[in-house]
Design goal:
Layout: H1 3-26, E1 35-42, H2 49-68, E2 76-83, H3 88-100, E3 105-107, H4 112-116, H5 119-125, E4 129-131, E5 152-154, H6 159-172, E6 178-184, H7 188-203, E7 207-214, H8 222-231, E8 235-237, H9 242-254, E9 261-263, H10 270-276, E10 284-288, H11 297-310, H12 316-335, H13 340-348, E11 353-355, E12 358-360, E13 372-378, E14 381-388
Parallel strand pairs: 1-2, 1-3, 3-4, 4-5, 6-7, 6-8, 8-9, 9-10
Antiparallel strand pairs: 10-13, 11-12, 13-14
Helix pairs in contact: 2-12, 6-7, 9-10, 12-13
């Protein structure tokens, strides 16, 4: 071999070694890092921004508590957030941004539509994902294959349970025999909740006398509400998110509709009271994941710490995001590893974990078996009515 050939071989070998070192340094993201990167895929702007802001606060509070106690497995948690703009397509984009940032786990999105846009990516990339607030059953179980998404979990109860709870409350507590439905037709969450409510209401002898639909970002609901008023139902069920629900309640009362208006957990936002007006929310009820007025030690401590940090009473999105981080932390500790497969297996085994929003036990579908609460409004503030066990 000539001197020129020897020099060429040495240069080539050095280049290969350099590339190998470079790739080794990039592999695994945070495996050898001093921090654990957890992504937050939240609705920070758009129609559901209230949920995302609360969820971000809840996540940050949980992470601070964990880090103040030494972190997990000797590492501190680092939060990376992405704004999904309250849109399903943007939720998928936000998830990709988080993956590009080498996060190990993801909390969020909060909405059902946003979560549904991310579940296949979570499985494909083997990234454990916990949606705090997504209640559509299809988030954890593929509706076509009926297979459980192995890397996807939730902290909220599902709409199957929530719909039954609200239908039972309407019949048993409100003595309703007829109902009108006014559904957000652009929301997977609202359409799912509508189905489960209608099925249970009918099974209990109730009759739906009017069905109307609206879309997110609509602002004028009086034409449909006039039709509903003419049907004279005992109650009006409005599954949807606070932005439109607030305007619907306000316009319904302006039209002289005095019947109870009932909804689901999508109502839970201080913005609802601002939009609807305190007096208009009298005789309104909604299902939720927890009450800030609960007297349990977990709730009292959480509410006190949250109010100290953010100067506002925490809503369900805040509490559920806080619980989501604590559930993930428990799984990481139980697995004694950051390996995605070990952590998702540990998540599936979570049982009787005392949390802010109830005692968490995951079923075979990665859904928590937990209670629901019914809330109403008094003088512009949420007020506890009752708790419903699963």
């Amino acid at each position: 071999m000539t001197g020129k050939s020897i020099r060429k071989c040495i240069i080539t070998a050095l280049a290969v070694m350099s590339l190998a070192v470079s790739l080794t340094g990039c592999s695994g993201g945070s495996a050898d890092s001093d921090t654990i990167k957890i992504g937050g895929n939240f609705e920070l702007t758009g129609n559901s921004a209230s949920y995302g802001a609360s969820a971000k606060n809840g996540m940050e509070m949980a992470v601070k508590e964990i880090n103040d106690q030494g972190g997990l497995l000797g590492k501190k948690i680092e939060i990376v957030t992405a704004d999904n703009r309250s849109e399903a397509t943007e939720a998928a984009n936000a998830m990709q941004k988080l993956l590009d940032s080498d996060v190990k786990f993801i909390i969020g999105p909060d909405t059902s539509s946003g979560s549904l846009a991310c579940v296949n990516t979570a499985d494909k990339e083997k990234i454990p994902m916990i949606t705090p607030y997504g209640t559509n059953p299809d988030i954890t179980v593929d509706p076509s294959s009926k297979q459980v998404h192995p890397y996807v979990f939730r902290t909220a109860f599902i709409d199957t349970f929530q719909g039954k709870v609200m239908a039972d409350f309407a019949v048993t507590n409100l003595k309703a025999k007829t109902a009108a439905i006014y559904v957000d037709n652009s929301s997977d969450y609202a359409k799912g909740l509508q189905k489960f409510f209608v099925d249970e209401f009918g099974a209990k002898g109730g009759q739906v006398v009017s069905e109307e639909a609206y879309l997110q970002k609509d602002t004028d609901f009086k034409a449909a509400l006039t039709k509903i008023k003419a049907a004279n139902p005992d109650i009006i069920f409005v599954p949807g998110y606070y932005q439109e629900v607030g305007m619907i309640v306000k316009q319904a009362r302006e039209l002289g509709i005095t019947q109870p208006i009932v909804g689901g957990d999508g109502w839970d936002s201080a913005k609802l009271i601002e939009i609807a007006g305190a007096d208009n929310l009298n005789n309104c009820y909604f299902g939720n994941h927890y009450s800030a007025d609960d007297t349990s030690d977990e709730v009292k401590t959480f509410v006190a710490n949250y109010q100290k940090a953010y100067n506002v009473k925490p809503d369900a999105p805040a509490a559920l995001a806080y619980d989501s981080v604590m559930i993930l932390a428990k799984a990481i500790k139980d697995a004694n590893s950051l390996d995605a497969d070990k952590v998702k297996d540990a998540l599936a085994k979570i049982s009787n974990l005392k949390a802010v929003t109830g005692t968490i036990t995951y079923d075979e579908n990665h859904d928590p078996v937990k209670s629901a609460v019914i809330l109403t409004f008094k003088e512009g503030k949420q007020s506890f009515v009752t708790k419903i066990q699963p």
